[in-house]
Write a structure and sequence with these properties.
The protein has 491 residues and is mostly beta strands. The protein is built from no helices and 34 strands. The model has no long low-confidence stretch (mean pLDDT 97).
């Protein structure tokens, strides 16, 4: 393991660049046996700056190989977020003998002679599995002088209409365009003027189908929309989603305009999108997000590098008592870094002294709580005698709480020391949690992935112990599994 990957706070099983600044995941595509992860990258500093596309590839979405920068700023400006697809049928004419990759991204500069930002959509293509890229000579391919915030194209092939579809963040809406060749685009429809949350500028949309309750014959379309930071709201940047129908040109939200569905109740999952071209025989919809928040992303206390991605997650739709909801769980490939688990059953919590277990700095915790008389129960991860992260459940309010106010360094932002809450109904009298603890983050999946809470932590020391507790009454732990996880940088 190189020195950089031993740095304090360096994630050990989440992707982070070897050095410098990273934000949004871009161009997620599977091609010729490799998962490609491109990302917003500033190679000359550890804060946001002129954007490039960094690049990494993986065979399993867990172990990553960082490759040279894929896209550089050029005469059209910096390279903002976007997507990548496989042009299987050479609709672009870029490829003669075999399919290749096409990146569709936002070029960002200013209108000549002004300070007004200009954002236009452009193409680049690769004939060598993403190792080198050629920017299209006809760039930009899509622009609109009336819209300033005009970025983050996510493109996919819509089989039924035999067209490419682009969803593009356009201020407080998503505009949908269609194309036969990725070069010429036609306006199709506008979505979201009065729907969902408008607490900040809309960014990084995605649109895809998911089966309902695992039934491949019964699907709905899901639109993801991230929302930029707004100082008026304590949460900072976050991501919402809509469920509905899509006919190739128009997305219809099946919920009321005022309904807001959050993808993640933690502070640190933003700008996430899904992989394109996952093989049909696999069939999964796999998502990854940027594990930070614009409220403090430029100030978090890391040195040679800044920012990491979430674990890759498989998305599905499930029927709940409140309607259809996204379920998300880490991909099965995580098995590759699991060590041997210790398991325990029927642990009685008496509301008095906590019960302690030794854990690794890198740990997966799977636990099923059963409510008895206690109104609150949970676990605390002890980073030191003074620092802890507490995950608790308020059985009266039916709320999951992730408290990082005492988790370590929070001096860099007044917004960081915070209590994160998520609505979570008990299933009978039980809740289950799957917790992934890395060096500077915690991801909590509750009730088999119905709720996710993703949160950065910056403890001064490594965690080595966990306390289980109940308050003002008793609770039972039906089962507990503690699984040490291996570093992805150690091989």
């Amino acid at each position: 393991m190189t020195v950089q990957y031993k740095e304090k706070h360096r994630p050990q099983f989440h992707f982070s660049p070897k050095e410098k600044w990273m934000n949004d995941p871009n161009g997620l595509v599977f091609f010729n046996g490799e998962y490609h992860l491109f990302y917003q990258y500033h190679p000359h500093g550890t804060t946001w700056g002129p954007m490039h596309w960094g690049h990494a590839v993986s065979k399993d979405m867990v172990h990553w190989e960082e490759l040279p920068i894929a896209l550089y700023p050029d005469e059209h400006g910096a390279v903002f977020s976007g997507s990548a697809v496989v042009d299987w049928n050479n609709t672009t004419g870029f490829f003669e003998n075999s399919p290749g990759l096409v990146a569709i991204f936002t070029h960002a500069d200013n209108y000549p002679g002004t300070e007004r930002p200009r954002q236009r959509q452009s193409l680049a293509y690769s004939k060598d599995d993403g190792r080198t890229w050629v920017t299209y000579e006809g760039n930009p391919v899509l622009s609109d002088v009336d819209i300033t915030d005009y970025r983050d194209p996510k493109v996919f092939w819509h089989e039924e209409s035999n067209k490419w579809v682009m969803v593009l963040a356009t201020g407080q809406t998503v505009t949908i365009y269609t194309s036969h060749n990725l070069k010429e685009w036609e306006f199709a429809s506008l979505f979201g003027m009065n729907e969902g949350s408008h607490d900040g500028v809309w960014e990084c949309p995605d649109l895809f189908q998911l089966p309902i309750d695992g039934n491949q014959g019964n699907k709905k379309w899901v639109m993801l929309v991230s929302i930029g930071d707004n100082p008026k709201f304590k949460e900072g940047s976050r991501t919402q989603y809509f469920i509905g129908d899509f006919d190739g040109t128009t997305f219809l939200n099946q919920h009321s305009e005022e309904t807001v569905l959050w993808l993640d109740y933690g502070r640190d999952n933003y700008a996430g999108v899904s992989w394109s071209d996952i093989p049909q025989e696999d069939g999964r919809r796999i998502y990854i997000g940027w594990m930070s928040n614009w409220r403090y992303a430029n100030q978090v206390p890391t040195k040679e590098w800044r920012s990491a991605m979430t674990l890759p997650r498989e998305l599905s739709l499930t029927t709940t008592s409140t309607g259809l909801r996204i379920v998300q769980l880490p991909v099965a490939e995580i098995n590759g870094i699991r060590g041997g688990a210790e398991t325990f059953r029927n642990i009685a919590l008496d509301g008095k002294e906590p019960i302690s277990y030794k854990i690794s700095e890198l740990t997966e915790i799977e636990i099923e709580f059963e409510k008895e008389t206690a109104e609150t129960f949970g676990l605390s991860i002890l980073h030191s005698k003074k620092e802890k992260t507490t995950i608790s459940y308020d059985a009266v309010k039916e709320v999951l709480i992730v408290d990082r106010t005492a988790a370590g360094d929070n001096s860099f932002s007044e917004s960081f020391a915070t209590i994160q809450e998520a609505p979570l109904n008990m299933e009978g009298k039980t809740i289950n949690l799957q917790v992934f603890l890395d060096a500077s983050s915690i991801e909590v999946f509750a009730n088999n992935g119905r709720i996710a809470v993703t949160s950065l932590l910056f403890p001064h020391e490594k965690a080595d112990k966990m306390n289980l507790f109940s308050k003002e009454g008793t609770a039972n732990i039906r089962q507990l599994a503690l699984t040490p996880l291996k570093s992805i940088w150690s091989e």
